[in-house]
Amino acid sequence: MQAVNIRIIQIVLLVVLLGGWQLGVTSGAIDRFFFPAPYDIVKQVIAWVSDTGFYKHVGITLSETVLGYIIGTGLGVGAGVWLGLSPFVARVLDPFIKAVNAIPRVVLAPIFVLWLGLGLWSKVALAVTLVFFVTFFNAMQGVREVNPVVLSNTRILGARRSDLLRHVYFPAAATWILSSLRTSVGFAVVGAIIGEYLGASAGLGYLIARSEGNFDAVGVFAGIIILAVFVLIIDLILDFAEKRLITWRPNAGEERPA
Amino acid sequence: MSSPVRKLEAVTELKPKPMVAIDDVTMAFGSFVAVQNVNLKVGDGEFLSIVGPTGCGKSTILNAIAGLLKPAEGKVSIDGIAVQGVQNNIGYLFQQDALLPWKTAFQNVELGLMFRGVPEEERRAKVFAWLEKVGLKGFGDRFPHQLSGGQRKRVQMAQALITGPKVILMDEPFSALDIHTRHLMQNELLRLWQEDRRAVVMITHDLEEAIALGDRVVVLAAGPKSRVIESFPVDLERPRNVAEIKLDPKFMTLYRDIWASLRGEVEKSYASR
Question: pLDDT in tens for each of the 273 residues of chain B?
């Protein structure tokens, strides 16, 4: 009963909010140049979604996100496991890693455009720099926090270094990486969008930038809504993936007493 | 007990060729000396229990045998070969959970054979046999978190024993279990061990467990600079039932004697805190 009530209140709240906004615009109390009517925004969204050319933009943003995520995670895991296993190298590189991580990634976008051009790869590079550090720190943490008893046991059972990597270190790091999946995919999206926004010829970020260039607030708002839906869908897919991938982790209430 | 039992007399310290030999071993961490000048011999097929107050460095002795720690002085050898680096011909039963949480019971038991390059067919058959042996038939697909504490211990036993180690090391293996589960597991362990007797070194602070399971009980002094103070042969008949043997008058005499020796050390270890 409570769940239904909450749902009703949420819908009422949404209707009041959007209705008020719409009313404000039609009565002239809100300047439609800055805050276009929700109705116009919805019309724009529908117009885009029903246009096949629009999916080219979605596809490009999606491929930038996915490529950025995969490359960033791969590099992050490799570097994280390596530095996690060699404390000496980690100590040597520590100040450099901190310095690079301190750079606001957005300022790198112009450099990537300079190096890689206006196409796909400059956006992927930006996404990679964002994703890399999340996975890197998580993988390093995962490797460092492997239970020493488990490690000793596996070595006694006859594991060589490569076996330890495969059966102990990578799975340990993987659990941390999966737990940061949401954050890092979020960063990949941000990287792709910002890259597009700052200079591109296609993609959702480009759509927003183009609308802004035309002083088309309707387009900007419609772009934002589409982006939100885009991220929500990715989130749903991740939810599903997470449940499938970590089968060995106890769900709440499933843990058994000794 | 229809299984073939290698009949062995309780092995004494004078047995000519020991399976594990600890010669004058000193374990130290920086300037802290945990154990000093320890001499121990464990015969093939002998079950040695080591008791001592908490914090006397018992575990460091096991880790020296396993090759996980290097003695500051002295030398350890298994079957006449000096221990250097982590040993693969031993089975180690840890006090804590040592199973890989991301592998099922089957995959965990399989590890030792897999690392040795045993072909998959043979591996499968052996793992299933061992899971059945430890009473976990049908539990192969469970992850450690889906098993109870006792079941996890059983998996660990199968994992440690499947490779047929020359020496079995146990570090307070059952101390985390409740008393009934503990008795069950101790009997289970004795049953498995009796089927195929190996040298065992078990560390415990539970004197009852030490006597009930062991062929010999060694008492360590309070740490630091712990050493062996006395060694008691346990002449109780096998097979034993751990829960019932405690009523045996011989058990009680032994308990009294060993406790007389151990009590002073326990008191010392508390006094120095």
Answer: 445 555 555 545 454 578 999 999 999 888 888 888 999 999 999 999 999 887 777 889 999 999 999 999 999 999 988 999 898 899 999 988 899 999 999 999 999 999 999 999 999 999 999 999 899 999 999 999 999 988 999 999 999 999 999 999 999 988 888 888 888 899 989 999 998 899 999 999 889 999 999 999 999 988 788 889 899 999 888 888 888 898 999 999 999 999 999 998 888 888 876
Q: Is residue B13 part of a domain?
A: no
What are the residues of chain A with a beta carbon less than 8 Å away from any beta carbon of chain B?
A: 147, 149-150, 152-160, 163, 167-168, 171, 174-175, 247-250, 254-258
- Domain assignment of residue B131, yes or no: no
Q: Which residue has the tokens 């995969």?
A: A70
| DSSP, res B95 | S
Residue of A nearest to B87 (CA): A156
Domain presence at residue B116: no
List the single residue in B with minimal CA-CA distance to A256.
B148
Among chain A residues, CA nearest to B153: A258
Report the complex ipTM. 0.85
Domain around B252:
20-89+165-271
| Domains identified in chain B, total number | 1
Looking at the complex, does the CB of residue B101 fall below 8 Å from at least one CB of chain A? yes
Rounded CA-CA distance B1/B253 in Å is 28
Q: Is residue B124 part of a domain?
A: no
DSSP state at residue B256: H
- Asked if B46 contacts B83 with a C-beta cutoff of 8 angstroms, the reply is no
B92 in reach of chain A (CB within 8 A): yes
Closest CA to A191 of A177, A178, A205: A205
